[in-house]
Amino acid sequence: MRFEGRNLGEAFGAFVEARLARLGLAGSVQAGASSAWVDVSGPAPLVDMLEVACLLGPIESLVDGVELISMAEASNLQKPEP
């Protein structure tokens, strides 16, 4: 998943990592100021729950949009620097 918005740095990354653990999903996050990448694997309903959670929080971040990207597509795109 690729999230676009404002203030998607350290706080957003920590938020995503906590939600990955809470939902029992395997994954990682690379967050920058205006975009964040979340590589996640697990049951589709739980991945959908993660997407919704990330759209809503944390309070200091504003997510303007999310794009679901396959692993093949993601390998061709540049991810933000941590």
Could you characterize the architecture of this molecule?
This protein has helices spanning 10-23, 44-56, 71-74; strands at residues 2-6, 26-31, 35-41, 62-67. The protein has 3 helices and 4 strands; from the N terminus they run E-H-E-E-H-E-H. The protein has a 4-stranded antiparallel sheet, with helices on one face. Helix 1 (10-23) packs antiparallel against helix 2. The chain is 38% helix and 29% strand. The longest helix has 14 residues, at 10-23. The radius of gyration is 11 Å and the shape is globular. The model has no long low-confidence stretch (mean pLDDT 88). By secondary structure, it is of the alpha+beta class. It has one domain (2-74).
Summarize the structure.
The chain has 82 residues and is of the alpha+beta class. The chain is 38% helix and 29% strand. The mean pLDDT is 88.
Model regions low in confidence, pLDDT < 50 over at least 5 residues: none
Number of strands: 4
Give the total of domains.
1
End-to-end separation in angstroms reads: 16 Å
Strands in their spatial order, largest beta sheet = 2-3-1-4
Written as H for each helix and E for each strand, in order along the chain, the element string is: EHEEHEH
Secondary-structure-based class equals alpha+beta
Q: What would the average pLDDT be, to the nearest integer?
A: 88
Instruction: Name the helicity range.
Output: 25-40%
In terms of DSSP E residues, the strand content is 25-35%
Radius of gyration equals: 11 Å
Shape: globular
Number of helices: 3
The main sheet comes to:
4 strands, antiparallel
